[in-house]
Structures are given as structure tokens and as C-alpha cells.
């Protein structure tokens, strides 16, 4: 437990030390976070006070960037997936902007939720194009269904930090296997690995001691960096390589 607490403290220190802000006019403050988007640019948020509350927004950058890259979000299927994703973080759309409202008491939590939503939306639609019929989350769900693996999707757990963390699938405990918690990562990189590791470290105390975590990594058409695999394994998360997914079938179907 001391090691887990130390790892979480180090994460907080990294997050605090690597976050910068500047006033861009009399109303808005720009916050630069240490998380990277799919262009390897730092994700930026914008903050404005409205009365006794605060507005935090991505200023439409996430969705506008995806649309400009050829990922249309105007189909009912994609709109449903987008809404389901951001609703899980308590984030809403204002036009094309991802936005939350916060008070001084819950500002850190709301900022955390908005960042997690931006990462999740980027990951959901990564490499998507108008001709793509399904997304990685759906591919994983279809694979689980095809093997009659029971699961609950989009499950949110509260962490010891007070932050909420969403996992894509939870496979319940069986006679042969403990509870299994899955995170589907369409674009496996260091940031997503680190965010997944923090989510697991922060919530594992609330789960059964035998519960296990899996990161389902999409390696279709790409090589996954060994550093991503190593980072997940260091935090006791089992990497599940998508093109070799059947190797994990016994652990999930049992």
C-alpha cells in the first residue's frame, strides 16, 4: 500500500509540475496540461468565471480537429457513441465544445473529468474515416459477445483520490477467475498507458483484492512501443494485444 500511495503521489506531482496557465484576455485563462493529443501537442483547456461558478472548455478543439481529419460525427451511430462517452464523465456539448461547470470545491474533479473525456473522445475516433463502419470499443464488445463472455460496459469507479474513473468493460467473478476490468485503448501511447495506470491504482483498493486489470491494445496497422507494454506491466495491468487477443480467451471466458 505504501508503494501504491507513493506512485499516486508521484503522479500528482507530475501533473502539478507540468501544468501551466496564462491569461489570454480579461475573461479567459488558458491551461496547458501535460497530456498529449493525437498530434503530440499538449492538451489545452480554457477557464472562465461566471458568477460563483467556473466554465471549463476545450474550445471545440477536440471535435473540430477530428472533423478536419475526415472523421465525420454526423451519423446517429457516432453521435450515440460520442454522447455515451462524454456523459460518463459528466461532460456536455455546447456546439462542438466539450464543457463542464465547476465550483471551487469540485474544480479539480471537474478538470480531471474533462481531460479524461477529451482523451477518450480522441481515442474512440482515432484513425476513423467516413468509410469506417465500427470503432475499436465496438470491436472489443463484438469479440466478447462472440465468445459468450458476460460483461457490463462503461462502468465508473470512485478512486481513493475522490476522482471517478471509467472502465470500458467489467467481466464478473466466476468460479475459476476473479473480477476482470478492461480498458480498450485504440491509440496505445505513453499518455494513455499512464492515465490507465493511474485509474487502476486509484480504484483497485475499492475492488476485490483478486481483481485483475487488462488493457486491450489496438495494434492493427501499427507497432506498440515496448515502453507502453512495460509501463502497464509495472502497474500490474495485463497488456492484451488485439491481434493476439485469443491468447487471453481462457482468462476472460472462464
Low-confidence stretches: none
**Share of helix, binned:** 25-40%
Task: Using the coordinates above, name the CATH class of the largest domain.
Answer: Alpha Beta
Q: Whole-number radius of gyration? A: 18 Å
Element pattern in H and E: HEEEEHHEEHHEEEHEHEH
Q: Strands of the biggest beta sheet: in what spatial order?
A: 1-2-3-4-6-5
CATH architecture of the largest domain: 3-Layer(aba) Sandwich
Q: Could you say which structural class the secondary elements and strand pairing correspond to?
A: alpha+beta
Separation of the first and last Cα atoms:
29 Å
Number of helices: 8
Would you count the extended β strands for me?
A: 11
Work out the count of structural domains: 2
What is the CATH topology descriptor of the largest domain? Answer: Trna Endonuclease, Chain: A, domain 1
The profile of the biggest β sheet is: 6 strands, antiparallel
Gross morphology is globular
Amino acid at each position: 500500500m505504501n508503494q501504491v500511495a507513493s506512485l499516486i503521489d508521484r503522479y500528482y506531482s507530475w501533473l502539478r509540475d507540468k501544468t501551466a496557465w496564462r491569461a489570454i484576455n480579461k475573461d479567459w485563462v488558458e491551461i496547458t496540461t501535460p497530456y498529449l493529443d493525437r498530434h503530440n501537442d499538449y492538451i489545452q483547456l480554457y477557464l472562465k468565471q461566471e458568477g460563483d461558478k467556473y466554465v471549463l472548455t476545450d474550445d471545440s478543439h477536440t471535435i473540430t480537429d477530428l472533423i478536419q481529419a475526415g472523421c465525420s460525427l454526423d451519423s446517429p451511430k457516432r453521435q450515440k457513441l460520442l454522447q455515451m462517452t462524454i456523459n460518463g464523465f459528466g461532460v456536455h456539448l455546447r456546439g462542438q465544445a466539450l464543457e463542464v461547470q465547476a465550483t471551487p470545491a469540485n474544480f479539480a474533479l471537474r478538470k480531471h473529468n474533462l481531460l479524461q473525456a477529451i482523451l477518450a473522445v480522441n481515442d474512440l475516433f482515432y484513425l476513423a474515416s467516413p468509410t469506417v463502419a465500427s470503432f475499436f470499443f465496438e470491436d472489443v464488445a463484438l469479440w466478447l459477445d462472440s465468445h459468450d463472455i458476460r460483461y457490463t460496459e462503461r462502468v465508473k469507479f470512485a478512486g481513493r483520490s475522490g476522482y471517478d474513473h471509467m472502465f470500458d468493460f467489467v467481466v464478473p467473478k466466476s468460479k475459476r477467475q476473479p473480477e476482470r476490468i478492461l480498458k480498450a485503448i485504440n491509440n496505445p501511447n505513453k499518455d494513455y498507458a499512464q492515465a490507465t495506470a493511474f485509474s487502476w491504482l486509484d480504484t483497485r483498493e475499492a475492488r476485490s483484492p483478486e481483481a485483475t486489470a487488462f488493457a486491450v491494445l489496438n495494434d492493427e496497422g501499427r507497432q506498440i512501443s515496448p515502453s507502453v507494454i512495460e509501463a502497464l506491466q509495472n502497474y500490474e495491468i495485463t497488456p492484451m494485444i488485439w491481434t493476439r487477443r485469443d491468447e487471453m480467451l481462457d482468462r476472460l471466458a472462464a
